[in-house]
Amino acid sequence: MPYADSGGLRLYYGVAGSGPPVLWHTGGCGDSTMWETAGYVAALPGYRHILFDHRGHGRSEAPTAVAGHQMSCYVDDVIAVLDDAGIERALLVGYSLGARVAYAVAASHPGRLGGMIGLDSVPGRAEQPADLRSDAGKVMAEGTRAVIQEMAADESEPPPPWLLEHLCSTDAVAFAGGYEAFATAPPFWPPDHLTVPTLFLLGVGGDDGDYWALGQSAAAAMPAARAVALPGLGHLQAFWRTDVTLPVIEQFLAERSGGGQAWR
Length: 264
Known about the structure:
Elements: E1 3-6, E2 9-16, E3 21-25, H1 33-38, E4 48-52, H2 71-84, E5 90-95, H3 97-108, E6 113-119, H4 129-142, H5 144-153, H6 161-168, H7 172-183, E7 198-204, H8 209-221, E8 225-231, H9 237-240, H10 242-257
Helix pairs in contact: 2-3, 2-7, 4-5, 4-7, 5-6
């Protein structure tokens, strides 16, 4: 089992398949096995899938202090995994927090990414670190299960039991750490500095019209980006409803790889 070293922290990643490399980054909860269980990896042959457990999740070590969850650390982790795997350039698929990590990697290391997919996360224009840290406090006060179950209850259909249990098993400190990463991320707006080809896949359910408009604005401001709506899907559905997400992801990967062995 390969482990990368990032500032003295051991980070687990696995590799499946061969072809242009794709690094998969999960959100505040869960680990890399959720991409396999949901069917993403099996449905996308012809790629070298880098399945990464980010710090504090799955088989990776956890930092001992909140400062270890700053966005700069999450960015360093991605670069450490790519370096350890001998990969110069990968496409990064990030869900939720993972999407925010992708944007930060694209801002500081654009040459390392051949493209990125942000699965249901676009920073709000008015996001404030204090508000994000308040969300972290809620996780610590109520626990991971309570927060995830509240999220699931707001959606139009329940998540598969395996996904709910997988997400709920995440340590609350690691989950809360994701909000510290949000709070310490580099400015996203205006996003015209992000030159990496980007696909925003955004759940649009109920009264999410403002969120969809936000994603469209972000894509329009970037030199090589587009936004695709996932109608009727909430945040958790945007992950597990692979009948909707996979065809769009597959098309984007094919466009970026051009049938070759390296990202253009």
